[in-house]
UniProtKB/TrEMBL annotation:
GO terms for biological process: enzyme-directed rRNA pseudouridine synthesis. This is Pseudouridine synthase. One of its GO terms (molecular function) is rRNA pseudouridine synthase activity. Its EC number is 5.4.99.-.
Length: 311
């Protein structure tokens, strides 16, 4: 059922959307949701639908209709992932390699979103739709820790933390080659590849992208395990930056060298793993940090590399 709220303005001069935010944000409605209600005629001022920037006058009567959440059009499906933490606002999970995060062309089923719809029984909705809120992504063949919003409130708060670079993101990657230094910083802008539209590239007119790296372990076969900290979160950032340094991620079919897979070392996908994620809880403000140990296939590869070195 729809829910109606009625307000009488006691002090004029405030924008319609700002006034409603002060009244409804404590009830769990975000500013974007309030603006959506205004745009779609769900907010009436003295019986008329007005724009968000309308300046209220003393005595104005506001009627706000909040329609029920719309079920997602996606069909829930069981999809494997590991849950690290869950409450009414968010879920922190470990995504396996081979799982696409969000439905897209060529991936209309068995995505992480389908699995979350199947797993989460308490979704409160994102902008009026009962679905999980994706605030960041991992590539299909990248494993590791992710946070997903279960409420509109958490979605907006987490998205703001990512935008303001308040989220700590640390990855581990096995790369080809052996850097001469023990650590470094890559500050190279990234944009869409001028020819291959599914690829990214270093471009002067691209968006700022900064990656910090340090060596964790070197192997005699010319492979190196790195820890990488992201200051920004561009698409394919680590893969593009490491390829630009001539140390592409091992097993990367897009940015790596031809024949970059090492079947004898059990490398069958890009060896990139989201290891650590830290952020503030959107409701309590508590500092949270989650660690996802390396996925089993990467652990096996490292063991084979260590055995080869000892041999």
């Amino acid at each position: 059922m729809s829910m109606n709220s009625i307000f009488t303005v006691e002090r004029g001069g405030q924008r319609l959307d700002q006034y409603l935010a002060s009244q409804l944000e404590p009830e769990g409605l975000t500013r974007s949701r309030i603006q959506q209600l205004i745009r779609t005629g769900m907010v009436l001022v003295n019986g008329s639908s007005l724009k968000a920037k309308y300046l209220l006058q003393v005595g104005d009567k506001l009627t706000v209709t909040i329609p029920p959440q719309i079920p997602s059009e996606l069909v829930p499906e069981p999809v494997d992932f590991v849950t690290l933490y869950e409450d009414e606002d968010l879920i922190v999970l470990v995504k396996p390699p081979g799982v696409v995060v969000h439905p897209a062309a060529g991936h209309s089923s068995a995505t992480l979103v389908h699995g979350l719809l199947h797993h989460c029984g308490g979704l409160s909705g994102i902008n009026g739709e009962l679905r999980p809120g994706i605030v960041h992504r991992l590539d299909k063949d990248t494993s590791g820790v992710m946070v997903v919003a279960k409420s509109d409130f958490a979605h907006q708060a987490l998205a703001s933390q990512f935008k303001e670079r308040e989220v700590k993101k640390v990855y581990q990657a096995l790369v080809e080659g052996s850097p001469t230094a023990q650590s470094g910083r890559v500050d190279l802008p990234i944009g869409r590849h001028p020819v291959h539209r599914k690829k990214m590239a270093i471009r002067e007119d691209g968006r700022e992208a900064v990656t910090n790296w340090r060596v964790l372990e070197r192997f005699s076969l010319g492979l190196t395990l790195l820890e990488l900290g992201l200051e920004t979160g561009r698409t394919h950032q680590i893969r593009v930056h490491m390829a630009a340094l001539s140390y592409p991620v091992a097993g990367d079919p897009v940015y790596g060298r031809k024949n970059s897979l090492y079947p004898e070392m059990a490398i069958t996908r890009q060896c990139l793993h989201a290891h650590t994620l830290a952020f503030s809880h959107p409701r309590s403000g508590e500092k949270l940090q989650f660690v996802a140990p390396l996925w089993g296939d990467m652990l096996y590869t490292l063991e084979l590399l260590r055995q080869a070195a000892n041999a």
